[in-house]
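Hi there,

I know you've been waiting on this one. I reran it after we fixed the sequence typo, so this is the corrected version. Both the input and the resulting structure follow.
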Amino acid sequence: RKKFLSRLDIEEGELVRCRLARGSKVAVVDEAAGGKVVEGVDGLVSGSPYIFLSVSGADCFPVFFSDTKNHVVGIAHCGWRGIAADIVAEVVRLMKEEFHSNLTDIKIKVGPGIRECHFEVQSDLVRTFAAYPRAILSREGKTFISLPSVIKTQLIAIGIPEIAIGFGTECTACLNKKYFSYRREKNVDLIMLAIIGWRS
């Protein structure tokens, strides 16, 4: 982690990390949280120019939020549980309520994660995401879910303009030489770090 941060010119004391709960709780933090781990949250929001927000993952999607007009950033760890609980809406809610962000000023990028080519599910998750029929795909007698499709639907539903939502196309389970994947490797020690912040 230190080597990675040094390449980005970020000090350990500037980084705020999450002790993930695999849910939808999001914390608002300021520079006092620099160098600390926030327990039991899967997302962070801040208006401070002195810290960088981070989440870890290895198949779950990192989602980055920015409002450059009000200098607010957010980040969310989006596994299927957090997505089902609409964590992205919680990040946006806090940006609006705590920092007066307007929906039209928020830009969102969805990073790499396990995509529908590999995210095979059973009937329980089909029921969990039944409200998103376009995200449920059948192929060769198996069922898959497109989590990016669910995220996009949720963001549009709360008023984020579609043009403000950006997606990558890379699947962590496909690209074994580039990304870790829990589903592929079954190793909880192999994780990646997603970071967002801004300098004054």
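Quick highlight: DSSP finds six helices and 13 strands in the chain.

Best,
R. S.
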